[in-house]
Write a structure and sequence with these properties.
This protein has one domain. With 149 residues, the chain is an all-alpha fold. It has four helices and no strands. Helix 3 packs antiparallel against helix 4. The radius of gyration is 30 Å and the shape is rod-shaped. It is 77% helix and 0% strand.
Length: 149
Amino acid sequence: MAFEHQPHPRTKAILEGTARGPVRVLDQLDRSNAVARANSWLAVKVTTGVGSMWCAYLFGILALVGLPAALKPGGEGIIAWIAQTFLQLVLLSIILVGTNIQSAAADKRAQDTYSDAEAVLHEAMQIQQHLDTQDETLTKLVATISQHG
């Protein structure tokens, strides 16, 4: 009885060109209607702007401008200034920069993993074709031996 190859549904989808590529961070944006698209666009723009080192530098300068007032008698004090002003303003931007870098890295990893899986699939399909050719050759050989033996 000859082996019959049954490709996995995901393999079929990739071979037929109907499989979707890897999910990226930007794929998660809501695009269901005009308001959702506008909100997603604005959120990305604000996050990109605030999540830049230039914004962190600007917030750092802004925080330092407020430091003298915080240190004056009756001011909020150094601890409160650090916690409420400096950390919140400056670290917000720096954390967003790091998150943006991590998101880009995650997208690249997803694409690389998807490409690697496609390459493995291609190799597996080549092996399957090679085995099919060997099966045909062996079947002919067995038939020839059976006729002469």
